[in-house]
Amino acid sequence: MPEVIKIEGGHLLEGEVNISGAKNATVALIPAAVLANGPVTIVGIPQIADVDSLSEILRILNVDVQEIDVDHLVIDPTNMKNVTLDQDIVTKLRASYYFMGALLGKYGYVKIQMPGGCYLGPRPIDLHLKGFEALGATVSYDKGCYTIEAKKLIGNKIFLDIASVGATINIMMAAVYAEGRTTIENAAKEPEIIDVATLLNKMGAKIRGAGTNVITIDGAKSLSGCFHEIIPDRIEAGTFIIIAAAMAKKMVINNIIPQHLDALLSKLQEMGVKMKVDVDKVTIEKSDHIVGVDITTKPYPGFATDLQQPITALLTQADGESRIDETIYIERFKHCLELQRMGAEIELLNGSAIVKGPTPLDGTKVYATDLRCGAAMIVAGLMAEGITEIHNIYHIDRGYSEIDDKLRALGANIWRETVEND
Ligand code: EPU
Questions:
Q1: Based on the domain organization, do 59 and 157 belong to the same domain?
Q2: What's the CA gap between 201 and 13, in Å, rounded?
C-alpha cells in the first residue's frame, strides 16, 4: 500500500542537521565506477531510492555491489557482462542514461531503454547522442531502446548548444578510453561534474578543466579501482536552509560547501533572513520579517532550478511580490498548483510565476508531482496551519536521504502513514 507523509505545521525547529552526499553526483559516480577494471569504493552514499535502482542495474550487469555500511558502497566490475538494459528499473530514474556513456566508453556498445525520471516538461537527450556521434558512434532507436555502437571511439571537439549537466558527464565517460583528445566546449560547470571527473582521474583518466566551460579528456589505456568520497548535496543543503529560513528558532546546517550555495544564500540575505556562514556550516535564526525577491534560475553558479520549487513555498510568506523566472525547465511549476490549494496566491505565466505574500497556508491533501515539488510541499507543510498530507512521496524518497527523520530530530511533527490509494 502506498505511503503518505503527514506534517502538523507550526512547530519551530531547533538543532543541527547533517547534509548527505550529493544525489546528482552519486547517480553519475555509480555508473562511472564500471569504467574501472577493479573495485571502486565510494563513501558518503545518500540513502535514496535512486541508489537502490542503480545498484539493481549494476547487478543486472553482473557487477558485484557490496553495501559495507549504510553510506559505503564497493562496486567491483571485474566480472561485468554488457547485457541489454531493457528492464523496467531503467525507466525509474533519469540517471540510468549515464550507463550510455559508461558502457559505450568501456565496450563500444550499449543497448538501453529510454531513461525515466521527474517530468519537468520535455527533457531531450539529443546533446548526449550528438556527443557520442562526434566520437564516432552510431545511434539507432527501436521500440523504446537506444543502441549506440562504435568500432573505435576517437577524440573530437564537441560544442554543446546548451551547457547540459547530463550531456557533459555522459560525454566525459564515453571519452575516457577514446583515442586521442576530446574537448567539450560550453560544458556545464556544476560541482557534481567536478566530482565525477575527480573519481575518473583517481581511476587513471586524464580529464582537465572540469568546473570550467572547456573540458579536455585525453584517452587512457586502462582505469583501475580507487576510493572516493562524495561531495555534500548542495540541493539538500539548500532545502534545509530554506526550511530553516521558514521555521527555525535556530538551526545549524552542517557538512556543506557554502560556495556551492552562493546564489541561494545571497537571495536569502536579500530577503532578510538572518544567517552566519562558516567554512562548512551555516546557522540560521528566526527572522521576524522577510521580503519578496525576484529569482531567475540559471546553470551553476546561478540560482539552481532544483531550489526554485522549495523557495517558492517560502516566498508565499514573504512580504510583497516575488517574480520567479524558470529558464532551465519552463514547465517546472506544478508545485505552484499544489501551493495554491493550500492558500498561496500565485499567478502563473509562461515560464514565470508571480507570488504575492504573505498569505496564510492551510494544511490539506497535496501531491509531490516530482522530487523538488515534494520538497516544496514539505516546506509548505511545516509552515501551514493544521495537517498537510503529501501523496506520491516515492518522488521524495528518490532524492532525499531520510528527510522525515532529519526533520523530526529538529522538532518537526512529521510522520508516515499507509493509505489505500494515492
Ligand atoms: N537539454 C537539451 N538536450 C539535451 C540535454 C539537455 O535540450 O540533450 C536541455 C534540458 O531540456 C534543459 C537544459 O538542457 O532545458 C539543462 O538540462 P541538463 O541536461 O543540464 O539537466 P539534466 O542533466 O537532465 C540535471 C539534474 C537535474 C537538474 C538539472 C539542471 C541529474 C540526474 N539531474 O539534469 O536535477 O535539474 O541537471 O541543473 O543530475 C533534480 O535533482 O530534481 C533534478 C531534476
A1: yes
A2: 41
